[in-house]
Amino acid sequence: MSIPTNIHPNQPGWYLQFASDNTAGICPEAMQALSAANTGFAASYGNDDSTHLACDRLRELFEADAEVFFVFNGTAANSIALAALSQSYQAVICSDTAHVETDECGAPEFFSNGSKLLSAPHRHGKLTSAGVLEVITRRTDVHYPRPKVVTLTQSTEYGSLYQKGELSGISRIAQEHGLKVHMDGARFANAVAALKVAPADITWRAGVDVLCFGGTKNGMMLGEAVLFFNPELTKLTKYIRKQSMQLYSKMRFVSAQFLAYFENDLWKRNATHSNRMAQLLEQEVKKIPAIQLTQEVEANGVFAIVPAEIIPQLQEKYFFYMWDEHRSEVRWMTSFDTEEEDIIQFAALIKSLVLHE
Predict the structure, then answer these.
(1) Quick one: 152 and 296 in the same domain?
(2) N or C: which end of the chain has fewer CB within 10 A?
C-alpha cells in the first residue's frame, strides 16, 4: 500500500508518524550542524576537514581501521557495497523480506552488473546458519550463479535483532565457503541501543566485512556511511561510488551531520528513544484484546493483526503500512521524534474504534 498522494497541506503533522521512521523530520542537532557547515568555503568531493574528521570518528566508534564511504541513502549504500563484493556471475544470499530484495527496485543487481539475489529461509526476518548453508551448497554446476555474499539486516525488516552468536555462526559458514558478509544497518543504531553492545561486537568482531551504517532513519536529513572493515575489499569502491552518482561534491553537509550524530552519543540516544516508544506502544495495544501482536518488539517496529474493518478509519487519522493484507497485519514504526502522548492518543483511537465495531 502506498502513501496517499492527496494529503491536505493542513493535515496534522502526526498523520504520517507511524508510517515509517523516514517520515520524521531532522533532529535539531543535525539541523544546527547543517547550518554551521553552510559558512565559507571547503574542499569538495570529500576532501574537506569535516569528512576526514567524520571518518576518524567512525573508526573510533567501531575500533577498527575501516575505509569509509559516505553516500546519500540506504539503497545506494547497499548497492555500492554489494557491487564491491560480487561479480556479475555471482550471487548474494538474503532473506525474502530483505530490503535489497523487496524495496530497492533491483538496484543491488543493477549496480553489480547482474549478480543475482538468492533468498534463504528466515525466522522472524533473520537468516539462519542452516538456511545459508543450504543455499551455498544447493548447486555447484556452471549453470547456477556462485554465492559470494551473505547480506543481513540489523535490525531486520521484522524489527528483530541478530544476537552476536547468531551473526558469528552465519559468518563462520560464509567464511568457510569463501563468502563475504554484508550488513544492511539502516537501523543499526536501534540494534546497538537495544542490545547494549559495542558496535564492533556485532560487526567485524562477529565476522561482518561491510556495514552500511544508517543516519536517515535516526534523525539525519540524508546520509549513510559504508564501512569496509577489510580495506583490501575497497580497491574499486571509489569508482563504483562515482559511477553510481553518489560522490557528493559538497560532502561537508553529510559529514557535518555525522559529526553531530556522534557528539554525546546522539545516534544512540535517538535510537534508544524510538525503541522505548515502540515498547510503550506495545504495552498500550496489549491492553486491547482485539489486537494481536505478531512479533516480539525488539527495536522500533510494532507488528500487529488489526480487525480489517477498523483499518480504513484508523488510517484516516494515522497512516501506516499494511505488512500482510491477507492476515490484516500492519506495521507501526516509531522514531526519535515520537512522543509518549502520541502513543497514548493512537492507542486510545484504536480502542475506541474496536469498541464501536
Answers:
(1) no
(2) C
